[in-house]
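look at this:
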Amino acid sequence: MPSPGFVPVDATDDVQALNVGLLGYNFMAKAHTNAYKKIPYIFWPPAARPRLHAICGRTEERVAEAARRYGYAGYYTSWEAMVDDPDVELFDNCSAHHMHVEPSIAALRTGKHVICEKPMALTAADARRMRDAARDAKTKHMCGFNYRFVPAVRLARDLIERGLLGDIYHFRTQYLQQSIHDPDRPMRKAPDPASRLAGSQAILGCHAVDIARFLVGEPATISALAPRFVPERRGPDNTPVRIEWDDASIALVEFEQGAVGTIEASRVATGRANSLKWEINGSRGSLAFDLERLNELQVYLVDAPVADVTGFQDVMVTQANHPFSSVWWPHGHIIGWEHAHINELNHLIEAIMSDRDVAPYGATFEDGYRAAVIAEAIAESALAGHRLHVRYDA
């Protein structure tokens, strides 16, 4: 019996539920599940309550354990079966890169809303198929470029849209990891020949590409280098495997609006676990960001009110008037990497429930397709040894 004075609360409410079917159960599935659980009480009142309906994976023992761990009502070992489940309303594809295309297209064709993690596909042709399926489906779709939902990145876009930087001259970014820096470490799986042209840009640098498009605009031309430092690695069975993709890439980019820049990606940057940095220079100001200092945006404005204080100012993007901050903690209290996924998935759910566009702040399948086109342009420019024009199919 409860103690005297205890008042029970009716846990039911009139907030509509949205059934989620999640493909995958590892790192990114954990991040997405964490977001679904937090959305209803952080974004209060929620547009909908995500209901963890089903999770899917090939290995029954592991997916059953994931269902219990994360709190899903049930599980599937066949993505086809989960896609056919009429109770799944939002299909969330957090599976391996090579599993993004067919399950997502199938889910769209059954009329489900779909979010697919990046890279959306390992070739531009497959990404175009996904984009076209999303157009035909008329449901909501999002590509998981979660860094758009970091408050400092959104603030940067707001400042640029307000014209405070003037004309944009330069953009430079680098995304560096050491994930395959050890040439003697066996790969977890055999290489996929379909990813040969994409390399580091598809797997890692697509985030840098999306930030470039999100903040500066469309690249017009690209000239790139994409070295393969380790031409032979060990396969999962420890036998030698010839490597056909690059280990790193660096591209010179000319944007449609006249800015120039560099986009660099590396999976052999020894000592770098997850380093994403970018800087923008304009005629009236500059911005700089470092993911390892996620709550900060470096700002320099020629027209700043205190003219005698020169140099970049370190803006802590934690005030109540900053993007997303009103729903989180009191001003000055920082957030972390996982919060971008919470902001992102709430944005998608609000778009679903209010039937509004995911774009321009959320990345659509069109954005995922364009990132794939740019990734291939970088690889092809490196192979050809000359500058290429970026062209998208309608």
Q: What stands out?
A: The two ends are 66 Å apart (CA to CA). DSSP finds nine helices and 17 strands in the chain. The chain has two domains: 17-144, 148-388. The longest helix spans residues 365-384.
